[in-house]
Design goal:
The chain has about 250 residues and is α/β, with parallel strands linked by helices. Helices cover about 30% and strands about 20% of the residues. Keywords: DNA-binding, Phosphoprotein, Transcription, Transcription regulation, Two-component regulatory system.
Length: about 250
Amino acid sequence: MSAMPPSSPDGTVSERPALARGAGQHVLVVAGEPDLAELLSTTLELAGYRISLAGTGAEALARAMEHRFDLVVLDAALPDLAGLGRERRPPAAHRPPVLFLTAYDSLDRLLPELGLGEKDYVTKPFRVAEVLARMRVLLRGPHRGQRRDGALAYRDLVLDDARCQARRGTRALDLTPAEYRLLRHLLVNAHRVLSKEQIGRYVWGDFRGGNAIEQLVSRLRRKVDREAPVLIHTRRGFGYWLGVADGEE
């Protein structure tokens, strides 16, 4: 999953851009595959984290009840995760943020369970640089979509899932079901670039042509971004993201 740095013509090793590093935070790595556990533990230790290991979901829960971890990195493919009861989870005040490692075809099942500002995911096969970057974001604390009185919110954008209604400030947004699903997906993943394929599979359950997604995003922008600051952005060649761009705070 990682490679040696490239060499320059004179034989010296050229430097890659600096990876996100930790500052001694205690991370619980939960992985049943020995090779994956070794890769993660070695990489994260070199990046400046303190690492503990668990091989099953049950073992991870037991460790989380006994110790305060700053972050959990968890392989979502562990076979015993689905059978773990909610009553055995650590007290809410002690729950660390979680970074899931998940196969792409598991996202539809996993995304509805992701908490806002306390959980995130990286698809497998993953790049170490992305894992480290997502860890750093989670360790900063909640800064993305938040819950306010049972509704999802980002700044003055609020989504009420119980009523399937959205508003920007005091203005109600008249959204179609597809527009609402797209806006919700962007909000839950605020500050994360989503590809057209990720968006298409979440909104419609399958991938549709780029033009269909571009038209959907365009319609949504006209409804959401009438006020400043602009919230929906394009990362050309990569996809779309929701949030306040640097310099617009």
